[in-house]
Design a protein that fits this description.
Layout lengths: L1 H8 L19 E2 L12 E2 L14 H14 L14 H17 L7 H11 L5 H10 L30 E4 L8 E3 L2 E7 L3 H4 L4 H15 L3 H13 L2 E6 L2 E12 L2 E2 L8 H12 L5 E7 L5 E7 L2 E2 H7 L4 E2 L7 H6 L3 H4 L10
Parallel strand pairs: 7-10
Antiparallel strand pairs: 1-2, 3-9, 4-5, 5-7, 6-7, 8-12, 9-10, 10-11
Helix pairs in contact: 3-4, 7-8
Protein name: TNase-like domain-containing protein
Pfam family, one: SNase
Organism: Urochloa decumbens
């Protein structure tokens, strides 16, 4: 970070390069009512118009913010008006930008170079947030923006996927209330995931921003209404470890198995078995397609366990032979306990 310090102390000779001249007046100040070392103390601009209305100074503003972040770990308070992700996520962004700046040679002097720095350092965040931070610093949008392969996650490159898999979902922890029975559940995927990021509609981002503003103004009725609208659009704001995450909802049907309905014999026991396997845990789903009810049909993996195999071997589900011909599934279901719970034994035809 010594190079940033040189930019503001004048130790480097940049000739007539105005981008590196220190700006006049302090840019940071403690928010009213906060003290050093006592709770959060986000900083705000002082003696300047609000960030939403004042023009930013491109590279010099970015360098000031990086310098301040290095010494305080605080991000610009006004940034939240331009992005939807949490303050915790923004801290990670600035850490990445700072690291990229220190490793960049030559270091950025023009708005185009600063934009490229940010775009490279934050290539995996939501596209709307990336555009928001570029807008915050009044920087140009590089073209084309970086893209990340979306057909599979980094943990499951396309070459390693079984034949027929269309894409992979890596979910947030599955809430036990989202598990309907022994062969189906609803799961949520963080929209910061590269596959999801490019597919979030602008209207969804606008609803998230409007909700944040409504809560800031204590208009909780409007905030709740916007949450309902997000839910209708297939999204939910989930709080994990104090961080709010915008997530996309997926209805999942487990491929190759069938389980009794909840009201049938062994229905509750089958559901409870699935809750024990995936409840409160993140799962990986290899998606093969959609069924007639609009559910995503896939193979489920959790804690290095193939969930369908475990459900079959424990006798809490049976092989759905009509739709799945995998011979290993027939082998999974040969246990005596499974035989006593075949569709015929349960009165299902």
């Amino acid at each position: 970070m010594g190079n940033i310090l040189k930019c503001f102390t004048g130790e480097d000779d940049h000739g007539d390069d105005d981008y590196y001249r220190p700006s006049s007046g302090a840019r940071y100040g403690l928010q009213a009512g906060s003290d050093h070392g006592h709770g959060p103390s986000p900083y705000v601009d002082v003696d300047q118009p609000a960030a939403a209305s004042r023009p930013h100074h491109d590279v010099v503003s970015l360098l000031q913010d990086l310098l301040y972040f290095e010494s305080t770990s605080m991000v610009p308070e006004a940034l939240r008006q331009h992005v939807t992700s949490s303050k915790k996520a923004q801290v990670k962004w600035y850490r990445n930008i700072l690291e990229a700046y220190n490793n960049m040679r030559p270091q950025p002097k023009t708005p185009e170079e600063a934009a490229q720095l940010i775009t490279t350092a934050l290539s995996r965040i939501q596209r709307a947030d990336l555009l928001g931070i570029l807008s915050f610093y009044n920087l140009p949008i590089p073209f084309p923006l970086p893209t990340v392969a979306s057909s599979a996650s980094s943990d499951h490159p396309p070459s390693s996927l079984p034949e027929g898999v269309q894409f992979v979902l890596n979910t947030l922890p599955v809430h036990h209330r989202c598990i309907g029975d022994g062969d189906g559940f609803s799961a949520y995927v963080d929209t910061a995931d590269p596959r999801e990021s490019a597919n979030v509609a602008l209207e969804v981002h606008e609803m998230v921003i409007d909700r944040t503003q409504a809560r800031t103004h204590r208009d909780y009725q409007k905030a709740r209404a916007l949450l309902r609208s997000l839910d209708e659009a297939g999204y939910k704001i989930i709080n994990i470890s104090g961080e709010e995450i915008l997530a996309k909802k997926y209805r999942i049907r487990m491929r190759g198995i069938d389980a009794p309905e909840l009201e049938m014999t062994y229905g509750k026991e089958s559901k409870d078995a699935l809750v024990k396997l995936i409840g409160g845990k993140r799962v990986t789903i290899h998606v093969y397609g959609l069924d007639q009810f609009g559910r995503y049909v896939g193979d489920i993996y959790c804690d290095n366990v193939f969930v369908q195999e475990r459900m079959l071997k424990s006798g809490h589900a049976w092989h759905f032979k009509t739709y799945d011909k995998r011979p290993e599934f027939a082998q999974f279901a040969v246990g005596e306990r499974s035989k006593s719970r075949t569709p015929r034994a349960l009165g299902v035809r």
